[in-house]
Amino acid sequence: MNAPLPLLMDCDTGVDDALALLYLAGTPGVDLRGVITVAGNTSAEQAAINTLQVLELAGRTDIPVAAGAATPLTGTDPEYATHVHGDNGIGDIQLPPPTADLDRRDAVQLIIDAAHAAPGALHILATAPLTNLAHALEREPRLPELVRHVTVMGGAVHHPGNIGARAEANIGNDPEAAQRVLAAGWELTIVPLDVTMRERLTPAHQDRLRTHGTPASRFAADALDVYLDFHERIVFPFRASACHDPLAAAMAAGDLTPVQAPVLHVTVDTTQGPARGELVADTRGMYRGYPRTPEANARVLLETDGTFPERLVERIVSLDVPTPGTTLPAAAPEVLS
């Protein structure tokens, strides 16, 4: 039997981060060592509270959670994605105050401590702007030697961006931090919009979550209302939502078999022009099977089989954890015809 995978998650807990947390909590073989938050979908502080609440739904109040960077490296005010994730980041679902407290360490120290506690074994999953990791690299220059692998949900290769023509939110909201992380020299996997936009949660998935009726599954179903509304209104000509952060979580957990994932040379545009925040991937070898070049620095997931949302739902409904004090809105009464 393989040893559990030590994993630390760096997120900005919106709806899809919350689903990723529940997915990891329900995935055998994952040892979630800690969760840190950063400004992105919502503030770092709100994301940390959201994280504590979501982990409590999964019965995991033992996992340390720390709030991290409140602004990008440039110090500019972040723009929160409340129009996508709701005012509180988790679909405006009001969960009870968490019973667990935030960790006394700052987010950067939690990264460093987790890396030293599992040298050469720790995986880091980043589903948010990469500001915390950039600060951690500055405080502990040996971090790339200590961390086994980093998986980043972010960027777009052949796909358009979602906060600009080419820029995706996690990379585009702190391009300088993203470039530092990409250039750090550690083993790196990128899960871009090219795949996350093609793995879609539908109303059928939402109905299954709601019908299952546990606190975790009901929360996931209810939080998806706002997320599905946004995607139907702005993104897709049908009701469905992208599967951004959970897909990256599955890749980090080794629970996803890629169809196409070449190793490419990847950088970030940090200029002040119209391409700022673009993930620049050298794909000139696409017609020759993407032969690896000496400059290549990241495995980039470009194609999956489109079936992951089913597994995501399975993992969440497996969390049959009764959570005392948790009260979600009652299900709508069935209308008989």
UniProtKB/TrEMBL annotation:
Transcription regulation found in the keyword field? no
Q: List, for all copies, the residue spans of the domain called Inosine/uridine-preferring nucleoside hydrolase.
A: 8-305
Entry keywords, A to Z: Glycosidase, Hydrolase
* Single annotated GO MF: hydrolase activity
User: Does the record bear Lipid metabolism in its keywords?
Assistant: no
Matches recorded under Gene3D superfamilies: Ribonucleoside hydrolase-like
Q: Which InterPro entries match?
A: Inosine/uridine_hydrolase_dom, IUNH, Ribo_hydro-like
Which is one Pfam family of this protein? IU_nuc_hydro
Q: Which superkingdom is the protein from?
A: Bacteria
Q: PANTHER family in the record, alphabetically?
A: INOSINE-URIDINE PREFERRING NUCLEOSIDE HYDROLASE, URIDINE NUCLEOSIDASE
* The protein, known as: Nucleoside hydrolase
Species per Swiss-Prot/TrEMBL record: Streptomyces endophyticus
Write the lineage as a comma-separated list. Answer: Bacteria, Bacillati, Actinomycetota, Actinomycetes, Kitasatosporales
